[in-house]
């Protein structure tokens, strides 16, 4: 006779996930520059500089941690964000110059 497997609840998964994040990244992970870019009760993606750390909790409560470099999509997105920021500053300076504030 096979035993039925009882999955953990989302609250239990969140607790396990939070403990795994604290163990891997430390108590002050936000102060050290880590940012949670995606997550739910069973997974979280943390990013700092050019590193992603993915935490996964399965339905039995086991934790899997993967550390990788950022992917091409993230790198391209950062380049686009910088381009928009620089273009916005240049446009603002040009408009200020035209309006006579500079």
Q: Would you spell out the secondary-structure blueprint of this structure?
A:
Layout: H1 10-25, E1 35-39, E2 43-48, E3 51-57, E4 63-69, H2 72-99
Antiparallel strand pairs: 1-2, 2-3, 3-4
Characterize the quaternary organization of these chains.
Answer: single chain
Kindly provide the radius of gyration, computed on alpha-carbon positions and rounded to a whole number of angstroms: 21 Å
The structure class reads alpha+beta
The count of strands amounts to: 4
Q: Tell me about the largest β-sheet.
A: 4 strands, antiparallel
Question: What's the order of the H and E elements?
Answer: HEEEEH
Task: Report the β-strand fraction as a percent range.
Answer: 15-25%
Number of helices: 2
| Poorly predicted tracts of residues | none
Largest beta sheet: strand ordering: 1-2-3-4
Average pLDDT figure: 93
Q: Assign a percent range to the helix content.
A: 40-55%
* N- and C-termini, Cα separation: 82 Å
Shape: elongated
* Domain count: 2
Structure in a nutshell:
The protein has helices at 10-25, 72-99; strands spanning 35-39, 43-48, 51-57, 63-69. With 102 residues, it is an alpha+beta fold.
Explained architecture:
With 102 residues, the chain is an alpha+beta fold. The protein folds into two domains: 1-70, no CATH class; 71-102. Helices cover 43% and strands 25% of the residues. It contains two helices and four strands, in the order H-E-E-E-E-H. The chain has helices at residues 10-25, 72-99, and strands at residues 35-39, 43-48, 51-57, 63-69. It has a four-stranded antiparallel sheet, covered by helices on one side. Strand 3 (51-57) and strand 4 (63-69) form a beta hairpin. The protein is elongated, with a radius of gyration of 21 Å. It starts with 9 loop residues before the first helix and ends with a helix. The mean pLDDT is 93.
């Amino acid at each position: 006779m096979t035993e039925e497997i009882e999955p953990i609840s989302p609250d239990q998964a969140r607790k396990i996930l939070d403990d795994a994040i604290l163990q891997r990244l430390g108590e002050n992970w936000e102060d050290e520059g880590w940012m949670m870019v995606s997550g739910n009760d069973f997974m979280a993606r943390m990013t700092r500089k050019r590193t992603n750390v993915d935490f996964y909790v399965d339905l039995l409560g086991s934790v899997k941690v993967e550390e990788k470099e950022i992917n091409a999509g993230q790198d391209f997105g950062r380049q686009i964000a910088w381009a928009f920021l620089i273009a916005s500053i240049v446009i603002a300076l040009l408009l200020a110059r035209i309006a006579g504030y500079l």
